[in-house]
Amino acid sequence: MSCSIAVVIPCYRVTAHVLQVIAAVGGEVRRIYVVDDACPDGSGTLVLEQCADPRVTVVFHETNLGVGGAVMTGYRAALADGMDIIVKVDGDGQMDPALIPYFVAPILNGQADYTKGNRFYDLTHIGQMPAIRLFGNMALSFMSKLSSGYWNLFDTTNGYTAIHSKVVKRIPFDKVSQRYFFETDLLFRLNIIRAVVVDIPMDASYGSEKSNLLVRKILVEFLFKNLRNFSKRVFYNYFLRDMTVASLELVLGMVAMIFGLIFGGIHWFLGVRSDTSTPTGTIMLAALPIMLGLQMILAFVAFDVASVPRRPIQLDLPD
Which of 75, 76, 79 is CA-nearest to residue 87? Predict the structure, then answer.
């Protein structure tokens, strides 16, 4: 079965690398969409003037929408042209276009709906990653596991991705975060529609290019956004869409822990205030609900880990 593959390249201050990135895209790709996200350096104009590749279409944004907004513009263009699989590659030269067949293969074979890069597979290459990025990616990946429900993934901010067009059509573009939270927010949206996501091992190169992502600046922002998505995901999957034993474990576990903490805190305060020892029975009455609540919450987490989507939805969606 023939399959049309498109590549989306969001562009913002990548004039030093974007032409080389385009030149490295293999013949398996039918269309290349370069999205100039109101780039002050004129990335799109550079491509128009100096790139003769007939596969390339340049789209310009009048205002900067962020990487997510640029990618979704590319998604729309690819859907309009009837592309089957859409790959996203950054224009800064950190992602090797030669890996595109590896990202496409699991989708083409019906094993995944969405693939993403993971730079943490090969430990020998992790040392190439700047320390601040290494720490930031580890922290952000853990938060993303919690919010997205894809406990089997890592390096969740990795922007080297591929997705089936059938799945793209199910994504609410108007609700997806348009800036640096895009990749993480997209994983949350994919989990809601029960899409299968697979990690693809890759190495990243860090040369003269400068990342626009400031890890220290976004950690707090990502923390709150991940907590928001976690709350939404739990509500959608465990209460609105379905209710299971895990739903009861979460509710009873939280109630038990909150009761134990409040009850214990009150009696600890009263004991300190009156300078008297708290009775053993009172201590146990506070400790037991906390321990039981913790066990039930851990049981919920174990259920959540085991419920990662397994069957690609592309197999069941109409064309």
Answer: 75
DSSP helix/strand/coil, 270: helix
Dihedral of the alpha carbons of 243, 246, 251, 252, in degrees to the nearest 10: 130
φ/ψ (deg, to 5) at 210: -115, 130
pLDDT tens for residues 94-142? 899 999 999 999 999 999 999 999 988 776 666 666 666 677 777 888 8
- CA dist 265 → 255, 256, 271, 293, 302 (Å): 15, 14, 10, 16, 29
Category of 235 on φ-ψ map: left (φ > 0), alpha (ψ -120 to 50) or beta? alpha
> Do residues 282 and 270 touch, judged by C-beta distance below 8 A?
no
Q: What is the pLDDT of residue 26?
A: 94
Q: Which CATH architecture has domain 5-233?
A: Alpha-Beta Complex (3.90)
> Which pLDDT value is given to residue 151?
95
Closest CA to 164 of 227, 213, 105, 107: 107
- In this prediction, the residues of the chain whose per-residue pLDDT falls under 50 are 209, 212
Domain ranges in the chain? 5-233, 243-306
Please count the CA atoms within 13 angstroms of the CA of 209 that sit on its side-chain side.
22
Dmax (CA) for the chain in angstroms is 84
Considering the entire predicted model, what is its pTM?
A: 0.89
- Mapping DSSP to helix (H, G, I), strand (E, B) and coil, where does residue 228 land? helix
Return the bridge partners of 56, or none.
32
- Edge to edge, the sheet with strand 5-11 lists 56-60, 31-36, 5-11, 85-88, 161-164, 114-118, 197-201
The label of the residue with tokens 């091992």 reads: 201
Beta bridge partners of 32: 7, 56
| Angle, vertex CA 218, rays to CA 212 and CA 40, nearest 5 | 25
| 189: three-class secondary structure by DSSP | helix
Number of Cβ atoms within 10 Å of the Cβ of 75: 24
